[in-house]
Design brief:
Oligomer: single chain
CATH architecture of the largest domain: 3-Layer(aba) Sandwich
CATH topology of the largest domain: Rossmann fold
Number of domains: 4
Number of helices: 33
CATH class of the largest domain: Alpha Beta
CATH superfamily of the largest domain: P-loop containing nucleotide triphosphate hydrolases
Structural class: alpha/beta
Strand order of the largest sheet: 3-4-2-5-6-1-7
């Protein structure tokens, strides 16, 4: 796997593979089919891009949206890879150029939409193909959360490329969807790779039954607290997207709406503006998002309860793809549940959809760690609470709610199960409304029996009784509340129930985890982002194609001063260093710490007797960066003992190889000659010592 690892570093600028990436790459290189379930931001594209660069012919990538193709193609081109997309948005002459390049084997990857693929099978059959990758593969299955009929025709490719490995990728797929994907794509005995669904950098918060005025106030405060941070607000209806977008604009927040009722040109314009950071907020239906690879979305808010956990998980996954801390907030009320069940009542799969809605509601009503519940849905189990959700931050207080439950359940039975939530609360609180008196509910024994609790408290209790199964809503009978078997047992004193006390929660603020990751040098970060924006416009690409936020934070933290040191920065491969390296170093020299300061800090800690590990922890840097600092200090004549990092035998090995290579200063020839026996850091240490001895 030396070649893939070298490509990972030299092309993409990363030192280590993420979970399952290496195994999937090995699998693809061995010519076998695979189905990979990897979370959004989990590095799916690397799994087919690296084998594509190694294999002799072209890799076809089937992707659902033109914008997604464009994103990935621009990113790969920035890394110096020969890649193109072929779709209906291009002119005939542009398509002819790409078609000829493909037929002449002058590309490494060719991105196609399923429609273009099926419509162009005649010429595609003549393309020299090494591998076929299907992105967003859940679209092939009617059980998936984003079924697209045209995806089902992709399996036809197997007839024309019987010996070519197929790789299918998706962020979310339950067991039935996985089976369907394998069948519909005609995968040959595929191995299944399932990466962890945990995205610990995402904070999870839920807010229930929040009145609209309060929600508006909370969201404006939330966004203004995060100037310059991009975010998405997901809504159930087109009308809501427009309403929210107009509201944000009226508050001075740059926003646009996005939904399927807009023309293709309008949607493309909004998406481009968001990708290029022209708009801070997009208010959208779920039609938005699958086509973007924007790494620096810092938050996602759901204005309504999503229809299933798969969709919700994929939508929140659009935040924090660069691994930096990001927020997700879900607002919901029981009206959302009614609306969602209304949407599916005519479906043949109504029972399945109802169950998925209920599971989503269970997550929203959680009284224990939300991440545990979310991951359990995908068959993954955390052994400890996550510490990064609203429940972990402020665990609810439980009390014996049996008497509270009995009051509510008794009132429902005394009305002959003919009331909804609001009317029930009115009865329990002794409301003097016309409806209660007209229907004589003021005469029942439980009228006014819950006057000690507020409307919001009762709303909170009743929602829990529904979630815990003591009550259910009759969606087919005007949303009336019905007492279940468990509810009857509670009334009769045969069972008890614990409830959580109502607590007025606030929308998520910046967490301590996020604050601790504050900009190491704010002036430098701003300067790098300004330069990135200018460079992006100059090259007509999104800013994150030039540099991810994570790369900028790494630069600001480590402040490299040489091109060689840029190899230690996330996302800096060989091509990126050649194209952008000197610009970045010039900015660091002008805006960063004065030259030598970062080394001086390391030296002071070293003089105090701290180990490399302790210095790295104190400075929030990698141990390798500290070793590099110590080498530089040693070369500058400081009293640093480099012999602690290398044995005399290893030193003599490097000395011997260097002499054979005419005293080269380059690390790679020595590393290659030693067949990888010594790491690059050890070779660096050896060269520094040998230079001093000379």
């Amino acid at each position: 796997m030396q070649q893939p690892k070298t490509i990972l570093k030299n092309i993409f600028g990363y030192s280590d593979f993420r979970e399952n990436q290496q195994e999937i790459i090995e699998h693809a290189l061995s010519g076998q089919d695979a189905l990979a379930i990897m979370p959004t931001g989990g590095g799916k594209s690397i799994c087919f891009q690296i084998p594509a660069l190694i294999k002799p012919n072209i890799t076809l990538v089937i992707s659902p949206l033109i914008s997604l193709m464009k994103d990935q193609v621009e990113t790969l081109r920035a890394h110096g890879v020969e890649v193109a997309y072929y779709n209906s948005s291009m002119s005939d002459s542009a398509r002819n150029v790409i078609r000829n390049r493909a037929l002449q084997n002058n590309l490494k990857l060719l991105y196609l939409s399923p429609e273009t693929l099926v419509g162009g099978l005649e010429w595609i059959r003549s393309v020299p193909v090494s591998m076929i990758a299907v992105d967003e593969a859940h679209c092939v299955s009617m059980w998936g959360h984003d079924f697209r009929p045209e995806y089902q025709q992709i399996g036809e490719l197997r007839k024309f490329f019987p010996d070519v490995p197929f790789l299918a990728f998706t962020a979310t797929a339950d067991k039935i969807t996985r089976k369907d994907i394998s069948e519909k794509l005609s995968l040959n005995n595929p191995s299944t790779f399932i990466s962890s669904f945990d995205r610990p950098n995402l904070s999870l918060s839920v807010r229930s039954q929040v009145p609209k005025k309060q929600k508006e106030k909370e969201l404006v405060e939330f966004i203004l607290e995060r100037p310059g941070e991009s975010g998405i607000v997901y809504c159930l209806s087109r009308k809501e997207t427009e309403s929210w977008s107009n509201f944000f604009n009226s508050k001075g927040i740059q926003s646009r709406f996005y939904h399927a009722g807009m023309t293709a040109e309008e949607r493309d314009s909004v998406q481009e503006g968001f990708i290029n950071d022209d708009y801070q907020v997009i208010c959208a239906t779920i039609a938005f998002g699958m086509g973007i690879d924007k790494s620096n979305v810092r938050w996602v808010i759901h204005n309504n309860l999503p229809k299933n956990i798969e969709g919700y998980y994929q939508e929140i996954g659009r935040a924090g793809r660069d691994g930096l801390p990001s927020n997700t907030v879900l607002y919901y009320n029981m009206r959302d549940v009614i609306l969602l069940k209304d949407f599916v009542k005519e479906s043949n799969l109504k029972e399945v959809y109802h169950e998925k809605i209920n599971r989503m509601l269970n997550y929203a009503e959680a009284t224990s760690c939300r991440r545990k519940i979310l991951l359990a849905y995908f068959g993954e189990h955390l052994t400890q609470d996550c510490g990064n959700c609203d429940i972990c931050a402020s665990p609810p207080d439980f009390f014996d709610g049996t008497v509270v439950a009995q009051k509510a359940l008794s009132a429902i039975l005394r009305t002959k199960e003919s009331v909804g939530i609001n009317l029930l609360i009115g009865i329990l609180r002794g409301s003097k409304s016309i409806e209660i008196f007209e229907r004589n509910y003021h005469t029942i024994k439980t009228y006014g029996a819950g006057g000690e609790y507020s409307f919001k408290q009762w709303q909170h209790f009743i929602n829990q009784l529904i979630s815990l199964g003591a009550l259910e809503i009759a969606y087919d009978d005007q949303l009336k509340l019905k007492v279940t078997e468990l509810g009857n047992a509670i009334i009769k004193g045969m069972d008890s129930i614990n409830l959580t006390a109502y607590e007025e929660r606030k929308v998520a603020s910046k967490t301590k985890k996020q604050e601790s990751k504050s900009d190491p040098n704010e002036e430098l970060v701003v300067a790098l982002k300004e330069w990135r924006k200018h460079k992006a416009k100059e090259n007509s690409v999104p800013a994150y194609v030039i540099l991810h936020d994570s790369s900028i934070m790494d630069l600001a933290s480590k402040q490299p001063t040489t091109l060689d040191q840029l190899k230690d920065i996330q996302g800096f491969g060989k091509v990126k260093i050649e194209r952008l390296g000197q610009d970045v170093l010039d900015i660091i020299l002008s805006k960063g710490e004065p030259s030598g300061d970062t080394y001086e800090k390391t030296f002071l800690l070293y003089q105090s007797g701290k180990s490399v590990e302790e210095i790295a922890t104190a400075r929030n840097l990698k141990q390798q960066t500290i070793i590099n600092h110590l080498i530089k200090l040693f070369e500058d004549g400081k009293r640093v003992n480099l012999f602690q990092f290398i044995s005399e035998y290893e030193l003599q090995q490097v000395k011997s190889i260097r002499q054979n290579l005419n005293d080269t200063f380059q690390l790679k020839p020595i590393h290659d000659e030693l067949k990888g026996e010594l790491s690059y850091p050890k070779i660096s240490v050896a060269i520094a010592i040998l230079n001093r001895q000379n």
